[in-house]
Design brief:
The structure holds two protein chains of two kinds. Chain A is mainly beta. Helix content of chain A is 0%, strand content 52%. Chain A contains no helices and eleven strands. In chain A, strands 2, 4, 5, 6, 9, 10 and 11 form a seven-stranded mixed sheet that branches. A four-stranded antiparallel sheet of chain A has the order 1-3-8-7, with no helix packed on it. In chain A, a hairpin with a 5-residue loop joins strand 7 and strand 8. Chain A is globular and about 40 Å long. The termini of chain A are far apart. Chain B is 0% helix and 52% strand. In chain B, strands 2, 4, 5, 9, 10 and 11 form a six-stranded mixed sheet that branches. A five-stranded antiparallel sheet of chain B has the order 1-3-8-7-6, with no helix packed on it. By secondary structure, chain B is mostly beta strands. Classes of the chains: A mainly beta, B mainly beta. The interface between A and B is medium-sized, with 24 and 23 residues.
Chain lengths: 115, 112
């Protein structure tokens, strides 16, 4: 157990639908990151939050959005789903600053299948 | 062109064999990380290399950072079935620490 908790582990839905993926970071970590892993693109950075605020954006589609709540858990919302959105979505967390800031602890991922 | 090119893409070997996988780039990096990802799990950090020419050992795994800090290698001695997994190299991108760029990985399968 990495200490980063992601739910659900598996999700099957239809095109056009909307889903929410949830992540609880490791205790004490203030930064949360979302990554997408697909066969086509590999593991790609989507977005980062630090203590409730958006810090960095990567290749995140406009149909996707995220937020981090006061208790530091984060949610990734995916809407108007397309077949190509089928992928593994990982959440990771890290210390807020200093030497450990780029040491990520990943959750086990949420596997999204869009039919 | 990928920022990080990992080779080989797939490697299938028998237990007891030695192997080396590579992570190459034309860019210079301040540090480079290696992760291993097992089926159904997220990537797990193995090591971070920082200094050009640095060699780090983790049991049977030896990691080397190129002198010019553009490339890295991972050597496994006497591979075991438990070494099976996807080996990913990653570097920090942009001004935000933790925004990692990953290579496509080397899928290693070790057969008994």
């Amino acid at each position: 157990d990495s200490g980063v908790t992601q739910t659900p582990k598996h999700l099957i839905t239809a095109t056009g639908q909307r889903v929410t993926l949830r992540c609880s970071p490791r205790s004490g970590d203030l930064s949360v990151y979302w990554y997408q892993q697909s066969l086509d693109q590999g593991l790609q950075f989507l977005i980062q939050y630090y203590n409730g605020e958006e810090r960095a954006k990567g290749n995140i589609l406009e149909r996707f959005s995220a937020q981090q709540f006061p208790d530091l858990h984060s949610e990734l919302n995916l809407s108007s789903l397309e077949l190509g959105d089928s992928a593994l979505y990982f959440c990771a967390s890290s210390a807020h600053s200093g030497v450990g800031a780029n040491v990520l602890t990943f959750g086990a991922g949420s596997r999204l299948t869009v039919l | 062109t990928q920022l990080l090119e990992q080779s080989p893409q797939f490697l299938s070997i028998q237990e007891g064999e030695n192997l080396t996988v590579y992570c190459n780039s034309s860019s210079v990096f301040s540090s480079l990380q290696w992760y291993r990802q097992e089926p159904g799990e997220g990537p797990v950090l193995l090591v971070t290399v920082v200094t050009g020419g640095e060699v780090k050992k983790l049991k049977r795994l030896t990691f080397q950072f190129g002198d010019a800090r553009k490339d890295s290698s991972l050597h496994i001695t006497a591979a075991q079935t438990g070494d099976t997994g996807l080996y990913l190299c990653a570097v920090d991108r942009g001004s935000t620490l933790g925004r990692l760029y990953f290579g496509r990985g080397t899928q290693l399968t070790v057969w008994p």
